[in-house]
Amino acid sequence: MTPAPHTASACPKPPPRPRPKASARPGALLKALAGALLLLLTAALPATARPTGYRADVPIMNRATTPVDANGRLQVCGTQLCNQHGAPVQLRGMSSHGTQWYAQCLTDASLDALAHDWRADVLRVSTYVQEGGYETDPAHFTALADRLIRQASDRGLYVIVDWHMLTPGDPMANLDRATRFFTDIASRHKDRVNVLYEIANEPSGVSWSRIKEYAERIIPVVRAQDPDAPVLVGTRAWSSFGVSEGADESEVVNDPVDASNIMYTFHFYAASHRDEYLAALSRAADRIPVFVTEFGTQNYAGEGADDFAMSQRYLDLMAQKKISWVNWNFSDDHRSGAVFTPGTCAAHGPWTGTQSLKPAGVWIRDRIRASDRTDARRPAPAPRVPARHARRGSPHGRIESTYPPSTRTAPPVVADACSEDRYTTMLAISSGSISRCSSDCGRYSRMKARCASSHGRSRSTSSWTKSSTPPVCVGPAMTEFTVTPVPAACLAKPRVTASSAVFDMP
Predict the structure, then answer these.
(1) Which sequence positions are flagged as catalytic?
(2) Which residues in the chain are classed under CATH 3.20.20.80?
(3) What pTM was computed for the model?
């Protein structure tokens, strides 16, 4: 009898839309040529430039206090994942579902929400090998992974490139495909500091020595292009350290992969994988570097009732030992493990807040937001504004919101990414956006603003005038608001409107 799959990503997925046979596809050659051309174009783009237009104002290495800017290139130090300064870090984030089925859930808007509303650190991009994935169209799926890496990078997120092999469970069966894929992807992103490579999602039915052999053949492929990126190695029995096949972590501890700057992956689904798995994770993390690249709060199929109590035990352990984790999955699949309700992706959201989330989505979003930097369960403190920028007569040198006589009620906010009651509205930036900054006399004022979330991520905007597009600062609070004098004609009414508030100029 075939054993039950260990994880949700190993379970049958909705079949992809039927494709006509080759004889009935007169446009197949044209599609293949277009895919190849897309690969060539994306390969030529520098990693730290502005290649995509995915709302990235500046290159990722120059933006202030995103997860990547705060930590830089990651490295394995001892049993920990560490930042560029050698300090242990814990990344928290989400995995995509298979991109052959749910690429429509990974849009500019949804990734904006993941980065700024969820406050995630990392996105795992899951490229299935079989099941209608990479093997059916290597050029297309390489280009798709490349696009998603760029989109996530534009938002200052770390990216795990997940080679999502499942069936067959022997990773060596897809060695040639893996060599091609990782050569293509690593060569395009070798200059980035935010990419990690997961070379075998869930090996099964094979020995640890076989998985180790595969790893020692693929890691040099990655290193030839990107010598400094961490590599994540799958473990036996659906990345359970062999527990699902009657073994334990000792086989990895006693016979590690012959490579540096690597971590070993562990997957669990809390309703199915109980104390034995939790204990194995705890023991392993004391001996070798571990990254939980996939987990769920449901059973191994990613469906059924959520076991939040057991899930929290895992999260508490991972927080204690600083084990990074990624939850499965950021899609609207019908199973309870997908965070969005069915139809959300086709309707293009809403992506922010909890309106479109299943119970598991609400739970995991809250835990991603409640990071070491900011506890999402506590209100963010009121932003501090230098006294020289405060409205005259306001207490403590802080700006007070006022509205002109003609506007007694606040204009509607532009976005709801940060509109929850956990955030202060002192600066009337409850939406986290600035829009249409203007003087009362109808001229735009030159301004420079820094919008920052309470956990320190921020983004600066440049000075702008009436002829330019107003800046958008994504973050729950604006900590600095500096306005240069308006033209003489406006001095009689030196006011500037920012989103839903009006501030007197100093």
Answers:
(1) 202, 294
(2) 39-369
(3) 0.67
